[in-house]
């Protein structure tokens, strides 16, 4: 099964994405929205993105991809202070996923993560 959604990275797009992924596990929804939020925070509101979620049945992995048009702004997990209200997105993705990474092209990049299990709720 594959899900794909092209949208503008805005704060209101986060709950919209979560709604579209309601048939998926909490971990899938959380990782997808954290990757989308990373685009908002680091590239700016209104950045066009494509979100893809691919499952490999029957009990393979679930791959989440967020593609944006900036091949140079590479994500990196931060060490946020305990009192910070943000800055833990990639740390969460790293903790929940089996692995994650970035695929760069000339005109875009795709930040992806893979979770074990089918990802359906």
TrEMBL record:
One Pfam family hit: HATPase_c_2
Alphabetized UniProt keyword annotations: ATP-binding, Kinase, Nucleotide-binding, Serine/threonine-protein kinase, Transferase
Domain called Histidine kinase/HSP90-like ATPase: residue spans: 27-111
Superkingdom as given in the UniProt entry: Bacteria
Stored InterPro entries: Anti-sigma-factor_SerPK, HATPase_C_sf, HATPase_dom
GO molecular function terms attached to this record: ATP binding
Entries under CDD domains matching the protein: HATPase_RsbW-like
PANTHER family referenced in this protein's UniProt entry, alphabetically: ANTI-SIGMA-F FACTOR RSBW, ANTI-SIGMA-F FACTOR RSBW-RELATED
Annotated protein name in UniProt: ATP-binding protein
Originating species: Streptomyces yaanensis
